[in-house]
């Protein structure tokens, strides 16, 4: 791909994009099922916002409401302050990349890409030029006369993105665009989407069920569950300070190790063992859900204070690191991230330990995080790119 | 039953069914190449001793035969096109909108198909009389349209169902309204279904006899099916061999059309998704 030039950016005219506001939007379907309830969200001009959550969490419905393909039951949608709730998709100046790409099978790649411009009154010549430029950026020059049926999955994906950028819309919407690609292609397209966003910094709303995709692509991540927003934050905020048990269990690969425990006089007890002696003070005694990231657990001398005897069950060597599944007293089954060179073998008996500063605590009833601020000394500051 | 025996049984049944249709056709062919004398020998001489193409020559050189063929073609094609045009909005609504009583309405549309034209012919005759459309091609075409709509709605609905909704949504985002989306995206992609519905209607019209027989009296306006009947009843001379030749020539266009497009029809009726 060519190097981005300032001239190209200027011609793109999309350097800022729109501000998107969702104000208390809700969607109830005729059968009474609630897809989205009272959702508030703001996407700043040029921001790349990823909606992530398990299937059925309402993320696609939210995106479709922004696109104008679905009408919200309640609430307002504003694009640059203008209320577009009652407008149809055709009048919102948004572009969308669909999961199945939704390329018109009976049209050539060039016509697919130029269709939206032509429908909006652009001349044949203008359309041709815009399509040629988008095709050059996406390296589709040689495919312009082909039909979508003659393209590979990755090429179709690029045509779908080309169709979106040709129009220079105020808002880009992506509905799980990479989920039909194989793992390798998915990673390279991930990079391509990010590069494209760097080139056309248009406000983007991107839906995925893949938390890795969300973490790697987003300026801000919106974690959704059962029609509600669980947490909004930068990828690192969401990772370091999950606002709820759901987020803790969803973000991270492998996710956070969670286990029921009790706070007693400033110490954490689980299965009758005192696991961590000096948990930051200020929480009342009682049951909690405790969480430790796989990288927060370390091998320890079995005699050390607070060391939990453990047995190694399973190894997953990943090359750069090795994931191990241990069964530890007090913790149950936990994933631990080890150095790839660590000498480990299934059946190994050892002990695990953790720092109280790495401990996450959640209310076992509501699932909300308790005193996540207690870890600020270890967590990266808010908004930091690390 | 072994797989082989099952195969044989299948072929046997297929053969029996084929025979049901092929025996009368071959009988027609046998009659059409006979001389008037041989016609009286009946089934005794299935293969004529002295086959002749004279009957076909007589039929094909008859000027009124061409006129009746043209009449048939005109009212069938226009009736078929009209039925498809009338069925498209209905089929689209059934395919894309969810509304109360949709399934019931779909069944009701099919029920209309079950009503024999015989039952409605007398009231139809009176309607057409009141409208001053008796003895006009437009009247017959109108009835063909009405008769063809139910089947067309079903065939078209299943074609529309196979066009992914996301394509229409993409068109909407690209700036198209409903009607434009239907014309530019959905209809071209449902093309095989549209063609199949048109052809099925045209062929059904081709085999229509009662409707044109009742509604048309001017002999110059009747389609080929009625013309052959009129011809058979108008003369006492032995015309069986000529009738047979005329019948064969009359069914030939429908037969040729069917052979040419049967794959299309099978695909439209049985499925086969739009490939992106």
From TrEMBL, chain A:
Classification via PROSITE patterns: ABC_TRANSPORTER_1, ABC_TRANSPORTER_2
Sorted UniProt keywords: ATP-binding, Nucleotide-binding, Transport
GO annotation, cellular component aspect: ATP-binding cassette (ABC) transporter complex, substrate-binding subunit-containing
UniProt xrefs under Pfam families: ABC_tran, TOBE_2
Domain ABC transporter, residue spans: 20-251
One Gene Ontology biological process: carbohydrate transport
A molecular function (GO) term: ATP binding
NCBIfam families membership: PRK11650.1
Similarity comment: Belongs to the ABC transporter superfamily.
Stated name of the protein: sn-glycerol-3-phosphate ABC transporter ATP-binding protein UgpC
Originating organism: Histidinibacterium lentulum
Top-level taxonomy: Bacteria, Pseudomonadati, Pseudomonadota, Alphaproteobacteria, Rhodobacterales
Automatic annotation (TrEMBL), chain B:
SUPFAM superfamilies: MetI-like
Record's GO cellular component terms: plasma membrane
CDD domains given in the database record: TM_PBP2 (cd06261)
UniProt keyword annotation of Methyltransferase present: no
Biological processes per GO annotation: transmembrane transport
Membrane spanning residue stretches: 12-33, 72-93, 105-125, 137-156, 194-215, 242-261
Sorted UniProt keywords: Cell membrane, Membrane, Transmembrane, Transmembrane helix, Transport
Pfam families to which the protein is assigned, alphabetical: BPD_transp_1
Subcellular location: Cell membrane
Gene3D superfamilies (alphabetical): MetI-like (1.10.3720.10)
Residues of the ABC transmembrane type-1 domain: 69-261
Bilayer disposition of the protein: Multi-pass membrane protein
Entry's family note: Belongs to the binding-protein-dependent transport system permease family.
Identification of the protein by name: Carbohydrate ABC transporter permease
Source species: Histidinibacterium lentulum
């Amino acid at each position: 791909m060519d190097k981005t030039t300032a001239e190209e950016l200027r011609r793109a005219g999309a350097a800022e994009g729109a501000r998107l506001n969702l104000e208390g939007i809700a969607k109830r379907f005729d059968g009474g099922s609630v897809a989205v309830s009272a959702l508030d969200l703001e996407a700043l001009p040029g921001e790349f916002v990823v909606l992530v959550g398990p299937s059925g969490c309402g993320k696609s419905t939210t995106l479709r409401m922004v696109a104008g393909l679905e009408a919200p039951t309640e609430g307002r949608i504003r694009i640059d302050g203008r209320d577009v709730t009652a407008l149809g998709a055709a009048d919102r100046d948004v572009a969308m990349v669909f999961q199945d790409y939704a390329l018109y099978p009976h049209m050539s790649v060039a016509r697919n890409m130029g269709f939206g411009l032509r429908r909006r009154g652009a001349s044949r010549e203008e359309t041709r030029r815009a399509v040629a430029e988008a095709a050059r950026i996406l390296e589709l020059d040689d495919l312009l006369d082909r039909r979508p049926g003659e393209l590979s999955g990755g090429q179709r994906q690029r045509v779908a993105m080309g169709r979106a950028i040709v129009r220079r819309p105020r808002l880009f919407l992506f509905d799980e665009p990479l989920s039909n690609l194989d793992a390798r292609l998915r990673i390279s397209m991930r990079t391509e989407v990010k590069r494209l966003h760097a080139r056309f910094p248009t406000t983007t709303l991107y839906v995925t069920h893949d938390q890795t995709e969300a973490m790697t692509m987003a300026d801000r991540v919106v974690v959704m569950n059962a029609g509600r927003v669980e947490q909004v934050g930068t990828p690192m905020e969401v990772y370091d300070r999950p606002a709820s048990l759901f987020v803790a269990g969803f973000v991270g690969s492998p996710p956070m190790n969670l286990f029921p425990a009790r706070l007693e006089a400033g110490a954490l007890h689980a299965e009758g063992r005192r696991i961590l002696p000096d948990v930051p003070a200020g929480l009342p005694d009682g049951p909690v859900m405790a969480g430790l990231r796989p990288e927060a657990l370390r091998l320890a001398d079995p005699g050390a204070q607070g060391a939990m005897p453990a047995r190694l069950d399973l190894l997953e060597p990943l090359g750069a690191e090795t994931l191990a599944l241990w069964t530890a007293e007090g913790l149950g089954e936990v994933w631990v991230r080890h150095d790839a060179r660590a000498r480990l073998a299934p059946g190994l008996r050892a002990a695990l330990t953790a720092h109280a500063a790495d401990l996450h605590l959640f209310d076992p009833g509501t699932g909300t995080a308790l005193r996540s601020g207690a870890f600020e000394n270890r967590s990266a500051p808010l908004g930091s790119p690390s | 039953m072994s797989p082989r025996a099952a195969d044989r049984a299948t072929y046997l049944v297929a053969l029996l069914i084929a025979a049901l249709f092929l025996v009368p056709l071959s009988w027609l062919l046998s009659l059409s190449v006979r001389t008037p004398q041989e016609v009286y020998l009946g089934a005794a001489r299935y293969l004529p001793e002295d086959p002749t193409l004279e009957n076909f020559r007589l039929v094909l050189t008859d000027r009124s035969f061409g006129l009746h063929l043209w009449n048939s073609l005109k009212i069938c094609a226009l009736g078929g096109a009209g039925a498809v045009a009338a069925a498209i909005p209905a089929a689209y609504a059934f395919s894309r909108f969810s509304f109360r009583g949709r399934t019931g309405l779909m069944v009701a549309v099919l029920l209309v198909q079950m009503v024999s034209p015989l039952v409605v012919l007398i009231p139809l005759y009176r309607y057409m009389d009141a409208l001053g459309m008796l003895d006009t091609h437009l009247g017959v075409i109108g009835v063909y349209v009405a008769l063809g709509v139910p089947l067309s709605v079903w065939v078209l609905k299943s074609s529309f169902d196979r066009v992914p909704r996301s394509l229409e949504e993409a068109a909407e985002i690209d700036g198209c309204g409903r009607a434009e989306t239907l014309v530019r995206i959905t209809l071209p992609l449902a093309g095989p279904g549209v063609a199949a519905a048109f052809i099925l209607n045209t062929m059904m019209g081709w085999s229509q006899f009662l409707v044109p027989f009742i509604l048309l009296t001017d002999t110059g306006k009747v389609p080929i099916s009625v013309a052959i009947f009129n011809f058979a009843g108008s003369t006492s001379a032995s015309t069986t061999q000529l009738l047979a030749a005329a019948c064969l020539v009359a069914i030939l266009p429908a037969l040729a059309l069917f052979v040419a497009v049967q794959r299309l029809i099978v695909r439209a009726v049985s499925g086969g998704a739009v490939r992106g």
